[in-house]
Write a structure and sequence with these properties.
This protein is of the alpha+beta class and 204 residues long.
């Protein structure tokens, strides 16, 4: 990759030394930790630059991770010993929309973006994937109209709406499809390649 936009836009870097990031505010992390203390059954994931961990495990985590094919490590730490002393770019509690709204409402600069029904990704309210795109636009000197984004989940919706061309995968959920300029084939049937051919970025 020429560059990487990670943690829903909060951690951006490339091989030339470019780096830009936006961590969650410490005050909001304290609010989230206090909320977790009052909801001791909630499993939560914490994402740092090079370390990701959960506060605990339960049946929901094990069931979700088995469906996702164990796409991330399952390390366990007490967030009280790490989260306030290490830059944390994303916190992902395993809660439904109602509890997500409750928690976000307590914070001063946090919003949730969801790509899975079992959990949400909490990021800075003024951050997100469009901000990650903007960081690379400024670094490489390209315009919004020159950008193209691909997505399939709810956390891709604002990115697809922002990009010059937003492409939803055929297997995408309803929200990103509604925000996209174009819907391609699904991920298992060359959706990215077919969209690039459609927009003449690639040629047969």
């Amino acid at each position: 990759f020429d560059g990487v936009v990670a943690f829903n836009g909060q951690y951006c870097f490339d091989d030339t030394g470019f780096f830009a990031s936006q961590a969650l505010d410490t005050a909001d992390i304290e609010v989230i930790l206090d909320w977790l203390d009052r909801h001791p059954d909630v499993v939560c994931n914490f994402g740092e630059k090079d370390y990701v961990y959960f506060n605990q495990s339960n049946d929901l985590l094990r069931a979700t991770w088995s469906k996702l094919g164990k796409t991330a490590p399952t390390r366990f730490e007490d967030p009280r010993t790490r989260a306030l002393d290490h830059e944390t770019f994303q916190i992902s509690p395993f809660v439904g929309p109602e509890l997500e709204a409750e928690l976000v409402g307590l914070c001063s600069n946090v919003r949730g973006v969801r790509w899975h029904p079992d959990f949400t990704d909490l990021i800075p309210a003024d951050g997100g994937k469009p901000r990650g795109i903007q960081r690379f636009m400024a670094h490489y000197g390209i315009t919004r109209e020159q950008t193209m984004a691909f997505g399939d989940g709810g956390n891709d919706t604002d990115m697809l709406a922002y990009a010059g061309i937003g492409v939803a995968m055929g297997n995408a959920t309803a929200e990103p499809k509604a925000a996209a300029d174009y819907i391609t084939d699904d991920v298992d049937h060359d959706g990215v390649r077919n969209a690039l051919l459609h927009f003449r970025v690639l040629r047969d």
